[in-house]
Structure prediction request, 354 residues.
Amino acid sequence: MTMTPEEKKKQKQRNWALAALLAGFVVLVYVVTVVKLGANVMNRPL
Amino acid sequence: MTAASATNEPARAGASLAGPSDYVALLKPRVMSLVVFTALAAMIVAPGGLHPVLAVVALLCIAVGAGAAGALNQWYDSDIDAVMTRTRARPIPAGRIGRQEALEFGTTLAAFSVFTMTFAVGYVAAMLLAVTIAFYVFVYTMWLKRLTVQNIVIGGAAGALPPVIGWAAVTGEALSPLPWLLFLIIFLWTPPHFWALALAGNEDYARAKVPMLPVVKGSRATRNQIVFYTLLLAASAAAPYALDLAGPVYGVTALIGSAGFLAFALLLWRAPQDAERTAALRVFAYSIAYLFALFTALATEKLIGFAP
Prediction:
């Protein structure tokens, strides 16, 4: 199947949007984890 | 609708012309804005505190959950959307997104929003979010919408739950009277809001065979019902102030706002047939401003220290 230039352009846009969403979700989980741990984030045995 | 009514599937899957904006359109962003706003207002008035980052995440989950419900609604109702003027440019009937894609998109977002809410805020808010999405998709979209003239009355419960979710996100409980009064206000606001829109676009619903009140019972019965529900709405809007759960800023806003709503409803009730569409659109537009005003007043007086 050959995609038209317009279809390729839209596919690229969708891929970038999905990548941004996934990256955003990773950051969100990280930030929520840090916030929920609060001061305890540094509290672990060495 | 039959499961086989997979209309407008792109001819070559993967070679879609859908851009990110089409996926945003699947989320019904305008509906989402009202949902987020009412939830935010409830989060502000709820006692206790939630870390600002977690509050933003909770709002994001509510927004994405509402969007997921909107996407699933468009997946199921693509046959209706295709014949209605108001909705036929939506991504599925326009052929830019396939039904299967919309189903997968909506289901994924629904799962992510509920999971993230559980992880970030707690299970009470997450369960309420899941119930809201499920109610909108299964009870309203799949069951009531095509079955009964009471579709948007009962289905309105889904749109009314976000303040309860917002409250639960902050407090961890959902048994206090105020969030349920806010639920009641939105629940009673929904019929006049949607019936006004349905009066303005009556032919659309008739063509789509959706049993909206104006299609089934006619214009006069709809106008009567709009006035009836506006009276109930006015009473429920006054309740937070009357029960000392909201302060004078809210009380005055509710009084003036409800009087205005009733005035527009009565103008529609009296309007000659050729002026009905204009009067109905005024009720519709006013109803949105009214809900924003009520929840703004509620949140503002808490922020400025006027709340009881």
